[in-house]
Amino acid sequence: MYKLPVEAFPNHVTNCYLVLTDPITLIDAASGQESSNSSLLGCFERMRNEFGENVALKDVKRLILTHGHIDHFGGLHFVVEESGAAIGIHELDMSVIRHFNERLVVTAKNLHIFLERAGVGPERVNKLLEMNKWSKDLFRARPVDFTFDEGPLSGSPFELFHAPGHCPGQVCIRLDDILFTADHVLSHITPNQSPEFITRYTGLGHYMSALKKVRALPGIRVALGGHEDAIDNFPARVDASIAFHEARLERTLGLCNEPRTVAEVSRDLFGERKGYHVLLAFLETGAHMEYLYERGHLAVVNVEEVDRQYNPVLQYQRQ
Ligand SMILES: [Zn+2]
Ligand SMILES: [Zn+2]
Question: Helix 34-51 and helix 76-83: axis angle, to 10°?
Fold first, then answer.
């Protein structure tokens, strides 16, 4: 098994993994940008030159995609053109590939409603919606060859664990005592969260449950993420990720002693962000406030206003 650190976008490395099973399997394909594709080829070249492994991209016969984010699946056209590999992804992310543009457009409608309710001004909403389209020309929709949910992947030594939250169809993949965690668990950062209001099967509730689920897997010697480094003490890293979000939930609640909007809380949590990071901050805050709201720790307090208006700004307060 080889780790292929591919520069998917400038200064953004996605780890793909080549598993020398029969058939030879590649886990993730990076972004599909020209520089990403040549970086992927460069990894194969290093494998041949430095490790004497006589295997090329054309030998890959199966491509498993860990989730429907473009830095992981965008390179699938290139991989298929080079190798003819069969592509598989979790059933809940299949339509991201099959109906790429439709998903972007329809999801953006929910995002629009979310941002308005979050108390983001109209000018900024339009800017953020425009920014959200950044990936629309980077990928051509196409069908996939197989989908999966959970359990053993037939004709392979892999066992799949559905781990929704960061992405609806996120999976972790077990191979003996190795767990490929993709973006579900990373060695340093915690992956971005967004509210389930925008996309079903995302949201912090799913994410925390899925962390607890993989935490319970016995005998994981090493976990390998979709970015960053290998994780030696997997249970400890999962515990740290859970503790991180629990602390952020506590902090979020502490900011809602008075009626507050998602946009206001986001500014308190993350300060003034720039560009795309503004959107990520709103989504992260929205995911935490949604989690607290669903569990009754926050309530919407401007009920009369909400009753009168079509899509009002929601004011949340600690209960
Ligand atoms: Zn991701
Ligand atoms: Zn990623």
Answer: 50
